[in-house]
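Support case: user asked for a sample of complex input and structure output to validate their parser. Sending the pair below.
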Amino acid sequence: MLDKSGTINVNGEPHRSPEDPRRSLLDFLREECGLTGTKKGCDHGQCGACTVIVGGLRINSCLTLAVMHEGDDVTTIEGLGTPDKPSPLQTAFHDHDGYQCGYCTPGQICSATAMLDEIANNWPSDASDDLGGAIEATDEEIRERMSGNLCRCGAYANIVKAIAEVAHTSNGGSAE
Amino acid sequence: MKPFEYIRPDSLKHAAQLTSGENGTAIAGGTNLLDLMKLQVETPSRLIDLNRLGLKEIAEAEDGILRIGALVTNSEAAAHPRIRSDYPALARAILAGATQQLRNKATTGGNLCQRTRCYYFTNTDQPCNKRDPGSGCGAIKGVAKLHAVLGTSAQCIATYPGDMAVALSALDASVEILTEAGEQRVVPVRDFYLLPGDTPWRENVLAAGEIITAVTLPSPVGGTQIYRKVRERSSYAFALVSVAAIVSVEDGLFARADLAFGGLAHKPWHDPRLSDLLVGSAPSVELFDRAADLLLEDAQGFGENDFKIPLARRTLRAVLAEATGVDA
């Protein structure tokens, strides 16, 4: 049955899982871990502002219960880099002005970080012409793969430029 | 969200028993269920978490069959080498649905059970016979752009929203189900879904206490496989019309033409008469139109969705033309 002593590992730190099973992973991160970088946009899996990385995969933290992630490793925007030591994508979003208001940016960067790994692992997308071929990080691929992250300011052109720069110059990932 | 008891069962059999009564609901990826719980469309008193019970393998089975565990995510299925090479219609259908974040969570079994996106079903202020039997259907004479044109009833005109099951229907896949008694039963995807009739709240043949354990794909049939999805934007939108096609042509005649349609009905629509008409005949635009006539002979629009009838005709024609090289 439910292991009430369970912990959830967030950015390498263990946190006790919530008492109330209704707690979404998003609310857990913001309200109980104090990690407010992850944003609540629609709370229905439509906007991507709450995107975090769990076990290497990007998910909508609003559409999953925290208790379902006991024992899992969760990475939020705070775990990817710091102002002193930003990740390559954090630097690129800054350099290319990949935002206006910035509300969607943590979700965009978490999403893009995991997305570059998906391309490196040759996972196909709806934009891939050949399901059997090598996947290249073209602008078309980036746009399709980022379709789960909305930007109401419409900074898409610069978001794609920032991601493309990292995709074409390194293997992305978090700051080392 | 209403309070519920969260239970992590220690076996599949235990999980099946827990879902059998007292409003117990199984959760896998949860991307649809939790959304509906927030809207209080779904209000389970017990949530049974299946995620630590295995069922996460894609494995070769006897006679060339490929078995996809019910908890394999949509992402894993679409990226799997065998599915990409031997069942490309399925990989394409999965990739045409939702977003990567959702596909990373959504599972094979859960995807089969996803609920309609009818606006009246998801809004508890509105009448809906599916959510609240006897309250009426708001979509008939209402906002019905996404709604069905085939197999509707006076009770419900909702559509099945998914893509994956449309490809599974064309591929003649089957669903493996664990019963409350601990036995296994197998249901073809083509028989898994129900039309709304007078019981629109029943969407598939799963009974209380039953859990999907796997989907099996028959041994590869080759041919040209297409999944064409027509939607209002190029990504992250539900199908207005979709067509899954498994087609082969030998000596200038159709040798295989297995077709299934999304966006048209309360279930992935498979009409065996289309295959009977096409197989053995030479591909031509005239033949494609006869297939569309057959598909749509009983189609009925509800105003806003009238466009789906000609759209289905044109999409079918385009898919068959692409599959056969006929100039349409």
